[in-house]
């Protein structure tokens, strides 16, 4: 068998949720963001493990994603939808019991007209200019909205992964100005915001990436390991080239292993120039271009040909790999393809 093994450690996931939960006071609830199929790791498995650990509130990006969570967890958890109430979402919101975070006056009117008395939340824009009502819009509709008792009011921080960025305090001030006297539960912080401290926690936090082992939660336990089988090895003599475009030329005789994963598995071509795989603690450089299904690796330093090489594991986490490819851990995780042999441990 030559498919790579992707292992997802549900105990580490749960430990990360507990650690982020413990970072705020007892009165603050910790939700879980499970959008994009649980950051690529499997929304149903991930949300079931988190629900067993005590999570009761879940966030998805779009209404369609709510179905897998409702299926996995049944009727007793709250499922919020960041994109709010779009045209065409009404039946899904109603049938699945989803809570749309209303982002605009248009969504507010759509919701009140099509599903009066159905729970909703409000998303406010405090400066990121992505989703949510701006201060003037909110001022115009807030009395009407508050009269219908929103479940929650939230906003999102643009620079929370940079603790000293002035934007954090600016958004906190804007959020408080817009919500201080609303009497409704509030949420401002994702993973980065939780680490900014108590003033940012309000009533509910919404961690995503930290649960899955990524920065900026530096103390996170790694959740994912990825081992890629070696299919073939050869000696490439000095002067020969490897891979598409002849972009790598051997300066000396080199042992080259070809492993069974590529950009079709989410291992993006940008990993080529600086990327490493590991055999135990020994780093093995990627040679030449990443292909669709294959990567060529320098194993000259190894005493024996290994059965597989590790791309994600104890020697290299998602953020290190992301750094080598010029991207972020979020993108590495959510790009992980559908071809892996996926195995869950713990939970
Ligand atoms: C994705 C997202 C989160 C989770 O963010 P992380 O940085 O992954 O913790 C929280 N809130 C909103 C609005 C999001 O879009």
UniProtKB/TrEMBL annotation:
Biological process per Gene Ontology, one example term: D-alanine biosynthetic process
GO molecular function: alanine racemase activity; pyridoxal phosphate binding
EC number: 5.1.1.1
Residues annotated to bind substrate: 130, 292
Keyword match Isomerase: yes
Pathway membership, UniProt: Amino-acid biosynthesis; D-alanine biosynthesis; D-alanine from L-alanine: step 1/1
Keyword Isomerase tagged: yes
Modified residues (N6-(pyridoxal phosphate)lysine): 35
Gene3D superfamilies associated with the record: Alanine racemase (3.20.20.10), Lyase, Ornithine Decarboxylase, Chain A, domain 1 (2.40.37.10)
Protein keywords: Isomerase, Pyridoxal phosphate
Catalytic residues (positions): 35 (proton acceptor), 244 (proton acceptor)
PANTHER family found in the cross-reference section: ALANINE RACEMASE, ALANINE RACEMASE, CATABOLIC-RELATED
Family of the protein in this entry: Belongs to the alanine racemase family.
Known function: Catalyzes the interconversion of L-alanine and D-alanine. May also act on other amino acids.
Name the UniProt record assigns to this protein: Alanine racemase
Organism listed in the record: Litorivita pollutaquae
High-level lineage: Bacteria, Pseudomonadati, Pseudomonadota, Alphaproteobacteria, Rhodobacterales
